[in-house]
């Protein structure tokens, strides 16, 4: 387990600020109840933010035809829909909601080449809102597999998450489970798979990014 690069500076600043506040309180009140409460509250706040930026290290074990979860979270949508932005055909959409306590590293669900990538500025509706996938701040990435099948992955910011990070460009080759982005403090990831794909999860299932097999193409 490591701390993700997106959180290192924030955590350092938080540590300095919280330490400064507690030192100032100690100098003013000594070792009284106010200082004890502040120390406990500061520790809890810091640990909550620290766990959010945790980045587990593990080996990816996936077969070429398997679609693995792009993030930790809960499956909230499995439905057939039309993908309008790039694929422009009927697809099976799987949506994974990430709460603030989940790991927020985003991993590519399949091995392939990035054939399309675009960032969209937008609103900050709650991540489970039906219009969040088309109106919220988001990114769209399409990965073309070796067999020619294209899989679309969409990062969606939520009401709390207002900072999407990505580390890919069009034409870049990605391995199964390779990190491609990060969303801060609660969000959602949508995956669009070909109709007829064998889905191996159901709504309500918990997922582990890079480990849970969502489907077989």
What's this entry about, in short?
By secondary structure, the chain is an alpha+beta fold. It contains three helices and 16 strands.
Textual characterization of the structure:
The protein is of the alpha+beta class and 217 residues long. It folds into two domains: 2-55; 66-216, Distorted Sandwich (Glucose Permease (Domain IIA)), CATH 2.70.70.10. Helix content is 23%, strand content 37%. It contains three helices and 16 strands. It has helices at 5-29, 33-52, 132-135, and strands spanning 2-3, 54-55, 66-68, 73-83, 89-98, 105-107, 112-120, 138-144, 150-157, 164-166, 173-174, 179-183, 187-194, 198-199, 206-207, 213-216. The strands form four sheets. It has an eight-stranded antiparallel sheet with strand order 11-7-8-9-13-5-4-15. A hairpin with a 5-residue loop joins strand 8 and strand 9 (150-157). The protein is elongated and about 65 Å long. The protein starts with a strand and ends with a strand. The relative contact order is 0.20. The model has no long low-confidence stretch (mean pLDDT 88).
């Amino acid at each position: 387990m490591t701390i993700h690069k997106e959180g290192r500076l924030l955590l350092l600043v938080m540590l300095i600020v919280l330490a400064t506040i507690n030192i100032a309180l100690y100098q003013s009140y000594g070792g009284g109840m106010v200082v004890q409460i502040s120390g406990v509250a500061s520790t809890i706040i810091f640990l909550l933010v620290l766990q959010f930026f945790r980045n587990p290290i593990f080996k990816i074990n996936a077969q070429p035809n398997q679609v693995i979860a792009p993030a930790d979270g809960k499956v909230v949508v499995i439905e057939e829909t039309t993908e309008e932005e790039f694929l422009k055909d009927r697809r099976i959409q799987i949506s994974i909601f990430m709460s603030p306590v989940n790991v927020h590293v985003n991993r590519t669900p399949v091995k392939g080449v990035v054939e399309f990538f675009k960032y969209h500025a937008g609103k900050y509706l709650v991540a489970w809102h039906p219009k969040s996938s088309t109106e919220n701040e988001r990114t769209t990435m399409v990965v073309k597999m070796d067999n020619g099948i294209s899989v679309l992955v969409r990062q969606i910011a939520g009401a709390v998450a207002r900072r999407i990070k990505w580390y890919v460009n069009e034409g870049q080759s990605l391995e199964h489970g390779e990190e491609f982005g990060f969303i801060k403090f609660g969000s959602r990831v949508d995956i669009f798979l070909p109709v007829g794909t064998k889905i191996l999860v159901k709504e309500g299932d918990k997922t582990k990014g890079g480990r849970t097999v969502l489907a077989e193409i």
